[in-house]
Every structure is written in structure tokens, then in C-alpha cells.
């Protein structure tokens, strides 16, 4: 038996050692490769950008599990940097064929136009636009030349948003959804209580989809040099063949990707031209001038630390943690070199407690003399708006999904559902009646439901008050435009929830202005919290002995998976990493 445990322990230690050595080997190889590259003469090159990969709003940096996905913020900043780089001759893009978040699509478009403003070319190739969404096409419509494979199609038509309704399902199984919402536009509650759209739900969804659609159509018309009516005519009559898209001026040339790529190389100067990915080129940040802090918050707002999605043992989700973001604000406020703070928010909401924690951290930074500028990404709704409400300035993309100033909560009581199959739950309550309020079996009684609604009402009152004070809008007006209603960034600006329209570069411009930094001055954009080193990530991953045992056991199973073994072999024989799974936008 002793020999058995010795073998098991040796195996576990061996797996850990192998994992650690593998990471170290990749780092050493990367370092050697980087050193050799720096010794070479500087080449002229064309940047390449593959929009078919999944896009995050902003990057969390490198992790022990590999590079994080490309991000809208890093792409935008990299192209802004590249427009003034004499070594960069142009940009070659692989277009997304199916779906992209509205604000991400719009900010990529702005980045392309900004890059082109220096006179450099942009060539995009699409293996068709097979999805019906207008958004991925909008992202690249401003390209100098848009190529499409002639055997593919152009199905771009518009936008569609689908909502699920379980009310009829719950009726059939005699389950009782008991959801409280503040108020009628807090449409997530309808998923559980309704069988279809309410009037308010339909009105709000139609309104913001129309705003998104009209904005995209106008931008495409501008970028393609045709009329808005012409664009709408093409979309309404979709789908089209590649040849029909060419005739309608929605694309410029037919050809395969290899042909388009070589065309871009020759346009840049010939065979000596190299290609470098936008991600490898990076945003750069070697300036020694004045510092502006960058704090990122994306994903659901949660109590505790943020998660960057890189740790497979933690579920792989991306979250905005109240503890992490609040500490980032406190650290930035204490940094004497920081002149202003740009807070990038891309969140659909979440915990009211964590949202208020971040809201308070914003106020502390302002009290320390640091202006706070919000840059809204894909969405900044509900809790995502709460954390933004008291900033000095709010900048959003016209396509950002924001607002949703409201709250909902409740439960589904399954007592009658369980009874159908003879299953029974009985409870004994000691103490106040409210102790049983969250039972998944029994429905609220009258007192419990009134008390629960009162809790949510308090949250709603706090939320609307925070917005009124932060935005300097009368509380009565805030309650008119709140009620849980979703707005686009363009609509939000019209009603005072947003100050200016634009992306991350606009937010940095506003931050410079508020910090009294000359507009042409190169600034150091300093990330808070800073990216963790490899050793810190490993310590966090294997910090405790009990947790280490669990992690090693999980890692042992992962390492034995055929696909993992195949990936390791591929890494040994190739410099090309695995493609990332494409993200699916909520609005298609």
C-alpha cells in the first residue's frame, strides 16, 4: 500500500512538474524568438486582422493557459498607433461572416477609418457574408477594397432579436413564477411570467433595434458611397449572389483569400513585405509622458474578485468583481502620476451590492482629484450603468446597449410541480416568517412577497437616486426614463444618460482634456490592476495544498484528453496556435 501511495504521489508531482516545465519552455522559446527578431533589420509590413476570431471587449493580458482573445480596445489602440508608423504600409482583414456585437462592430469601423486617415490602405476579404446580420458587414464596409469569394453569397439583411418565454411551460407543469420587477420595461422578468411580448417589451425592443439598424445603414451608405435607400433596397431583397453584391457596390472584387492577400502584399511594395498580426503589433505603451489609468470591467458584476476567463478550474467565465475593481480605483487614486482614469465598462449588470461598491470607489477617486471618464463597450446596462452613473463624463458608442435602470428578482415555486410525481418537501421554520421566503418549494405568502418587493423597491430607489445625483438630472425625470428600459448609446445621449459618442480613443481624448493634457501629447495608459506575472498566476492557481490537490487532479484529467495531447503535439511542431471559438452576439 505504501508503494501504491508513493507511486500516486510521484505521478501527481510529475504531472505538476511537466506542466510547469512546459510553461517555462514556451516562455524561453518565446523569449529567444523575440530576441532573434529584435536583432534583425526592421521590415516593412502589412498588419493582418482576423475578425472571425472571438473578440473580447478588452484584454486581460497573457495567462499561463495561453494568450487571451483579441479585444476591441487593443485592436483600436493598435491601429491608432500604426497609422503613424512608417513601417506599416497597410491592413489586411479577414471579415467575420456571421455575427458581431453592435458596439464592437461600430468601434472596429471607427478604428479602420482612423487608420485610413493617414493614407494607408485597408484590404478586406470575406468568404461570403452568410449570416443575415448587418453588423459584421458594417465593421468592414469602409475598407478601400472589399473582396469576396465568388462561390459564396451575400445574405446581409438586418437585425433580429429573439426572446424566450417560459410562462406557458410553467403553466403546463403548474410551477408558479413569482417575479417582482421595477418596472414594466425590465423585460428579463417576462421570460418567466409571460408567453409572449408585452406591449412595453415589444416597444422597447423595436425601438433600440430600429436605432441600431438605422445607424448601421447610414454608416454603410457613407462608407460605400451609395444612398441610404439603395442600401435598404439591397438588404430588403437579400440574399444575393456574390456577383449581385458586386454589381450593387457592396463588394469591390471577386477572388480567393490567397489572391487578395498577395494583392495587399504587392500594393504595399512587393515580395519583401511581411505580414504581422495586429495582436502581435499591439497598442504599444512605451511613452514616458503623463499617465492616464485604464481600469477594465467586463462581464456580470459580482461580489468578490474579477475573473478573466483564463482559469479552466474556475469555470472560464469573465466577471467584473467589486473587490478587484474597487481596489483598482483606490490604487489609481493613490498614484501621484495618474492624472485621470478611464473606466471601460462592458457589462449587462449583476449584483446591486457589488455595483454600489464600485460606484463608491469611483467617488473616492474623484475626491482624490482624479477625473473619471467612462468608456462604454458592448453594453453598460443595469449594474453596468450603476457603476458608471457618477463619473465625470460618460462616452458610449451609438450602438452601445445601456440604461436598463431597474431591478428584478424572485423565484419559481415548484410545490405543485413536485406533487405531480409524488415528490414532497416539508420545512420547519424557526424564527421570523421570512426565513422561508427563498424556498424553491413553497410560494411566497402575502407577507413574504410584500417584504421581498420592499427590498427590491429600496434597491430601485437607491439606483435612481444615484443616477439623478451622478447625472445631475431631476429624480422625477430619471424615473421617467428608467423603469428598466434599454436604450442605445445614441438614444441615451439624447436623454442625458450619456455625454459624448465615441469609443476608447474618444474617452482617452476626453480624459486628456479633463486632466489638462495637450491633445497631441503621447500618454502612458497604465492598467489597474496590472497584469499578473506568470509566477503570480501559478501561485494563485496552486496557492493552497487542498486546492492544489483538486487542481492537480483536474489537470491530470485534462492532460489525458486526446484533444489536449493533440494540441501539445501541434505546439511542438507548429508556431500557429489554435483558433478561438467565435463569440455569438446577443443581437443577430
Classification by helices and strands: alpha/beta
Calculate Rg over CA atoms: 26 Å
Outline the biggest β-sheet: 8 strands, mixed
Distance between the termini: 59 Å
How many helices? The count is 22
From the coordinates shown, what is the CATH architecture of one domain?
Alpha-Beta Complex
Shape: globular
Q: Regions with pLDDT < 50 over 5+ consecutive residues?
A: 1-41, 568-586
How much helix, percentage-wise, in residues? 40-55%
Would you identify the CATH H-level superfamily of one domain?
A: 2-enoyl-CoA Hydratase, Chain A, domain 1
Overall mean pLDDT:
86
Q: CATH class of one domain, please?
A: Alpha Beta
Number of strands: 23
Beta-strand percentage range: 15-25%
Assign the CATH topology of one domain: 2-enoyl-CoA Hydratase, Chain A, domain 1
Describe this structure in words.
With about 600 residues, the chain is α/β, with parallel strands linked by helices. Among the domains are: about 40-155 and about 240-285, 2-enoyl-CoA Hydratase, Chain A, domain 1, CATH 3.90.226.10; about 165-195, no CATH class; about 285-405 and about 485-540, 2-enoyl-CoA Hydratase, Chain A, domain 1, CATH 3.90.226.10. The protein contains 22 helices and 23 strands. Strands 12, 16, 17, 18, 19, 21, 22 and 23 form an eight-stranded mixed beta sheet that branches. Strand 16 (about 340-345), helix 13 (about 350-365) and strand 17 (about 370-380) form a beta-alpha-beta unit. The termini are far apart. The model is unreliable at about 1-40 and about 570-585 (pLDDT under 50).
